[in-house]
């Protein structure tokens, strides 16, 4: 599946906020975007990240968030619930990273993310996309992809 990435809009924000997942993750945390709009008039995600919607066949298929920190691209992501478990995960991760590298046009040496240790399926997807486990703490499991 091919994904195209476009900046977050209020319409996409509301749609993604309504996504519900089964298991320990019930929804994607979109509150920071709503708060940033109230405070600044701009859509800014958690930790000041830039949010993008992944489109497939013209329909929203996922969320990708980016922060450039030094020589690393820090990412957060979610795939639309009905697309989970259908074999798109690793390709989605790779395409999102490729988009981020092109979008920011800066020298990057790694990509970092944090995942809930209980989210075994996501960890398998990240490992398939060549991420390595770094450390686990109260924030979650830190993983890194060396470019």
Automatic annotation (TrEMBL):
<feature type="domain" description="N-acetyltransferase">
    <location>
        <begin position="3"/>
        <end position="147"/>
    </location>
</feature>
<dbReference type="InterPro" id="IPR000182">
    <property type="entry name" value="GNAT_dom"/>
</dbReference>
<dbReference type="GO" id="GO:0016747">
    <property type="term" value="F:acyltransferase activity, transferring groups other than amino-acyl groups"/>
</dbReference>
<keyword id="KW-0808">Transferase</keyword>
<dbReference type="InterPro" id="IPR016181">
    <property type="entry name" value="Acyl_CoA_acyltransferase"/>
</dbReference>
<dbReference type="Pfam" id="PF00583">
    <property type="entry name" value="Acetyltransf_1"/>
</dbReference>
<protein>
    <submittedName>
        <fullName>GNAT family N-acetyltransferase</fullName>
    </submittedName>
</protein>
């Amino acid at each position: 599946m091919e994904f195209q990435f476009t900046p977050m809009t209020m319409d996409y924000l509301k749609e993604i906020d309504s996504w519900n997942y089964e298991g320990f993750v019930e929804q994607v945390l979109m509150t920071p975007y709503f708060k940033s709009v109230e405070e600044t008039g701009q859509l800014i995600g958690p930790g000041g990240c830039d949010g993008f919607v992944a489109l497939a066949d013209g329909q929203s298929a996922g969320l990708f968030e980016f922060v450039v920190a030094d020589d690393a691209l820090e990412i957060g992501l979610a795939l639309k619930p009905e697309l989970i478990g259908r074999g798109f995960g690793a390709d989605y991760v790779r395409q999102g990273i490729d988009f981020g590298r092109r979008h920011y046009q800066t020298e990057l040496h790694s990509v970092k993310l944090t995942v809930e240790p209980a989210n075994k399926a996501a960890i398998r997807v990240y490992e398939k996309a060549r991420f390595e486990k770094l450390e686990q703490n109260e924030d979650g499991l830190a993983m890194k992809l060396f470019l």
